[in-house]
């Protein structure tokens, strides 16, 4: 980007400042990158911002044609913009020549003005055009286009405030209060406010804006808005998965967002569990695999190392412990670890067996038709140990840490 300032922000380049010095601040100055598709703007000066009402950060990276659309939400060039002049600009940009002409443009608030535009190509070292510079002189224009559709047509919405005691009162007016400072926000139609602004906020922010005024309060009751907000916050996959969870459809998205954000609905619940883990034991290891809890081994009566596997399915209507018959069980042990891998695999490591400390690794696929523990051999395993901790990473790694080794070290 060189002299234009690599950060592309207003005031970021010595060259642009020099030009501004020559021209004075009265006109607009725009620089576009000619090496990128569609001539994205990389610099605008203060004169441009003041005259158009658009801030630099709103326009950097865009093509300057948005000035031909009436207001920030218009999707199309206004019909009164001279198509012949636009075609001439296109031709000059394609051929790499200078352009000079007048055309109708619009400020951010939708009011029209005439721009006397000069476009000049800037050449790099190898004679290729690297940038285009646009110098704009802004003139008033006397076309009466009426109010901006969807916003100006409406009277500015006098918001009603909700007081702490939940009574409604009209918003205060006058300089410096919320409504006068943000009234242009309230000139937007419900649809634009919802789709373009509120839908991009986080669930927590939506929950706070709903107490700003009556209008926002009613808008944030819209479940479609809440779905968009949840989708933005949690991503498409999570939103789709939540939609498929039984009961979600009856739970409104707003309520769901509140419960997931505040975790207010989370409480301990005492479950009555059927079945039993027999014989009784201590120092076993248990691990959650989705909605299932798996228990392996432990220390039975007379310090007997155990090697049986039990599963408790918490999503069952009547959860009960079930002993599962596995093909080849690992040697009995206690003080070992069980970790879950990829939602259905269990990894068993180490512990203390009948012959002393262990450092072996076994894997069990709970979803297999006939679940079988399978020993995994790795090079240079960690030293044998018990009472360590372990976890899985990235769906393929087992991390083992600490514990008690034979040496008595931990
Ligand atoms: C540096 C630069 C500045 C420009 N400034 C303006 C402007 O102030 N107003 C305007 O209507 N078009 C301006 N244009 C022209 C439009 O960005 C666009 O090139 C024109 O509308 C023709 O292309 P289109 O038919 O694809 O929109 C500028 C273009 C460049 C490269």
From TrEMBL:
GO terms for molecular function: photoreceptor activity. It is found in: Nucleus. GO terms for biological process: circadian rhythm; response to blue light. It comes from the Eukaryota. The keyword Ligase does not apply. Belongs to the ADAGIO family. CDD domains: F-box_AtADO-like (cd22154), PAS (cd00130). Pathway: Protein modification; protein ubiquitination. GO terms for cellular component: cytosol; nucleus; SCF ubiquitin ligase complex. Keywords: Biological rhythms, Chromophore, Flavoprotein, FMN, Kelch repeat, Nucleus, Photoreceptor protein, Receptor, Repeat, Sensory transduction, Ubl conjugation pathway. SUPFAM superfamilies: F-box domain, Kelch motif, PYP-like sensor domain (PAS domain). Residues 41-96 form the PAS domain. PANTHER family: ADAGIO-LIKE PROTEIN 2-RELATED, BACTERIOOPSIN TRANSCRIPTIONAL ACTIVATOR. This is PAS domain-containing protein. InterPro entries: F-box-like_dom_sf (IPR036047), F-box_dom (IPR001810), Kelch-typ_b-propeller (IPR015915), PAS (IPR000014), PAS-like_dom_sf (IPR035965).
